[in-house]
Recover the amino acids of this structure.
């Protein structure tokens, strides 16, 4: 995992002053590193009967879809408002300034399914807490684990995730 860490790039003051943005594009652009990331997650979850991998817009889709393919599972998109064409469930959540909303198709998951939720970065946990709430409010599924490429430990985002199993490949 140290090799993965070494190719994630820090961009200071992006998208605003004081934020150190973790840029994963060098990892995504490196075939060996991207493969190692997905293979590690596949090995972790293979044989558990995962039915679907849920990804959160937008970088989460890259990991969710690729992992789903590797596991032979389906993939499900949680999107920003107005992007999904069919009937949706919605969840609004607080941001530092204002609110945001996430949506999922009403038929995206079926009762009894075992799912993973995947995203690139666990920061404050606000986005994933809203995603978990959205899913748990509307679907009787088992969230087997929430997986991240990286976790910013000092922001304590995992404390917002209802005690669900959380696993991150890289920690800062
Ligand atoms: P949060 O809701 O605070 O856990 O973060 C929401 C999303 O913002 C994450 O899924 C990341 O895609 C992105 N994000 C937050 N902080 C960073 C960061 N320092 N570097 C890169 N992406 C970030």
């Amino acid at each position: 995992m140290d090799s993965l860490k070494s190719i994630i790039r820090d961009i200071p003051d992006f998208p605003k002053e004081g934020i150190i943005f973790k840029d994963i594009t060098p990892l995504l652009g490196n075939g060996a590193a991207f493969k190692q990331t997905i293979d590690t997650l596949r090995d972790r979850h293979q044989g558990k009967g995962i039915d679907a991998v849920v990804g959160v817009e937008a970088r989460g889709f890259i990991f969710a879809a690729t992992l789903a393919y590797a596991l032979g599972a389906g993939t499900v998109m949680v999107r920003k408002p107005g992007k999904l064409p069919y009937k949706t469930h919605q969840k609004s959540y607080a941001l530092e300034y204002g609110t945001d909303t996430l949506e999922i198709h009403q038929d995206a998951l079926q009762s009894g399914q075992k799912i993973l939720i995947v995203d690139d970065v666990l920061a404050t946990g606000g986005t994933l807490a809203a995603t978990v709430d959205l899913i748990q409010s509307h679907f009787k599924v088992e969230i087997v684990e929430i997986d991240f490429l990286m976790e910013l430990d000092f922001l304590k985002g995992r404390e917002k995730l209802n005690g669900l199993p959380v696993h991150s490949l890289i920690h800062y």
Notes: The beta strands are 9-12, 20-23, 52-56, 74-78, 88-94, 99-105, 114-122, 142-151, 166-171. The chain has one domain: 48-171.
